[in-house]
Amino acid sequence: QQLVGINVVFYYGAVLWQAVGFSESDALLINVLSGALSIGACLVTVVLIDRIGRKPLLWVGSVGMAISLALVTLAFASGSLDAGGKLQLSDSMGVLALVAANVYVIFFNMSWGPVMWVMLGEMFPNQIRGSGLAVAGAAQWTANFAITVSFPVLLGSIGLAGAYGIYTVAAVLSVFFVLRFVKETKGKELEQMEG
Fold it and tell me: Does residue 66 lie within any of the structural domains?
């Protein structure tokens, strides 16, 4: 969940958008828009999760994140550095980056954001549910920390396109992870979970 870099968008959003040429006030407004889209996507998931299941939501989210992150990476890769070392995008690539990044936020928050936490509460057998949730939660927060502290290093070394290329690869891998390893928990009683 964390390896697709979602918290980079939220933690560094204003800095990110300023880095590609948006003004500070526009960058903050884009962050507010991303937050509102996140909430809206989560609400859609609340309505859909028991109707269509967890695995389909994760799969659609993974595919959507992979495509939108690839477009963000493409937009960032098309830019050039100005005299001050700041990334400059053409108007069309700036719009592509903005739209694709917000589409990415929507796909994440209609899938991996809420669905993962629902599945964690459902997938462990009763005997180990508490321990399983604790270990899974610790892994999530550790990954969150690693992604958060690595982004400035990646930004300084391989740039925005390189960093988002890594997140794109993680999203592509998540498609296959869902298909191969995720078991549907929709409609199953907690007592039916065997691990």
Answer: yes
**H helix intervals, 91-128:** 91-109, 112-123
Q: At 163, which CATH number?
A: 1.20.1250.20
Report pLDDT digits (tens) over 133-187: 999 999 999 999 999 999 999 988 998 899 999 999 999 999 999 999 988 877 7
Q: Give me the residue label for tokens 């993680």.
A: 170
One-letter amino acid at 82 equals D
For 124, list phi and psi in degrees, rounded to 5: -90, 140
Domain annotation covers residue 188: no
CA distances from 157 to 94, 152, 153, 163 (A): 22, 9, 6, 9
Whether pTM > 0.85 for this model: the answer is: yes
Q: How far apart are CA 75 and CA 93, in angstroms?
A: 5
- Residue 191 falls inside a structural domain: no
Chain centre to alpha carbon of residue 120: 18
CA distance 168 to 5: 9
Sign of CA dihedral 133, 139, 141, 143: negative
User: Which tokens go with 31?
Assistant: 């962050």
